[in-house]
Design goal:
Order of helices and strands: HEHHEEHHHHHHEHEHEHEEH
Helix content: 55-70%
Shape: globular
Largest sheet: 5 strands, parallel
CATH class of the largest domain: Alpha Beta
Protein name: MerR family transcriptional regulator
Structural class: alpha/beta
CATH superfamily of the largest domain: Cobalamin-binding domain
Number of helices: 13
Strand order of the largest sheet: 5-4-6-7-8
Distance between the termini: 26 Å
Strand content: 5-15%
Keywords: DNA-binding, Transcription, Transcription regulation
Length: about 290
């Protein structure tokens, strides 16, 4: 056993590696088995361990995925670094979007759930959200009934996935908060992405008032807050900023509002996720 420990000194088990990269362990295993683009070392009992070089490799994979290349083309890109030799606007994303649109158009909600789960087994949420879920929602907005059914099933699927993740995640919860229902699917998508990185999360999306903020954080025993707030007027914007600033002395606050003591969130899904994980990694390293 000591030789086994020494052999993997400086390496990361899969859950810690997922936390560092933001890529779900399910997806990491799929990349290994189906595509061979990540090859961790294994213990005699089969446990996966990843190196610093694997972190860089996953970052390279994420880069190509975020450029729109399908995962099955990434291995060739990593080998040759020649994107001009490949077709970026690949049929993979078009097919995934069309299958979801067809499923909801035919009322096949279970099939839609399977398509969502399969997509998230192959792609990180940040990529899948941008390349598949958002375009499908945008397309369906012209068909209100189909759009509502799609959002309902997507929310249901995400809640189930998040609940499974949270059974294994520990520590004080990160509270994902919005006061506007239009942000609910975004928050559940972000909850899944952060849950995949081993963060414990709670989602609250309802018309809260600034005065409710402190009591809510205390009730949920949250020491970190992710606030995606949409003030209804200029006066309320100031009230929210003040409420967030009052929490900053006790909590780590991430916000899109200009609040004193808070970390300002970028605009896009992928940038927000990367910003949060990088900040947490830095905090962990400096606390050692």
């Amino acid at each position: 056993m000591p030789s086994e420990i020494n052999r993997f000194s400086g390496h990361y088990p899969i859950r810690e590696f997922a936390r560092l990269t933001g890529v779900n362990p399910v997806t990491l295993r799929a990349w290994e088995r189906r595509y061979g683009i990540v090859q961790p070392q294994r213990t005699d009992k089969g446990h996966r361990f990843y190196s610093e070089a694997d972190i860089q490799r996953v970052n390279n994979i994420l880069y190509w995925l975020e450029q729109g290349y399908p995962v099955r083309q990434v291995k060739l890109l990593l080998q040759n670094d020649q994107p001009q030799a490949l077709q970026q606007d690949d049929d993979d994303w078009q097919q995934r979007r069309q299958r979801q649109i067809t499923a909801i158009s035919e009322g096949q909600l279970q099939q839609l759930d399977r398509l969502i789960v399969d997509g998230l087994a192959n792609y990180p949420m940040s990529v899948f959200y941008q390349r598949c879920l958002q375009p499908v929602m945008a397309f369906l907005q012209a068909q209100p009934l189909h759009y509502q059914l799609y959002c309902q099933q997507l929310k249901r699927s995400l809640i189930c996935l998040v609940q499974r993740q949270q059974k294994h995640n520990q520590d004080a919860p990160l509270l994902l908060l919005s006061n506007h229902e239009s942000q609910e699917l975004f928050l559940y998508a972000m909850a899944y992405a952060l849950g995949a990185a081993a963060f414990r999360v709670e989602v609250v999306c309802q018309p809260l008032q600034p005065a409710d903020l402190a009591a809510l954080c205390q009730l949920l025993d949250s020491d970190q807050l992710w606030a995606d707030i949409e003030p209804t007027n200029a006066g309320q914007q100031q009230q929210w900023a003040e409420a967030l600033a009052q929490l900053a002395c006790e909590q780590t606050v991430f916000s899109r509002l200009a609040a004193q003591g808070s970390h300002q969130l970028p605009d896009t899904f992928a940038e927000q996720l990367s910003f949060f994980i990088q900040h947490q990694t830095f905090q962990k390293e400096t606390s050692l």
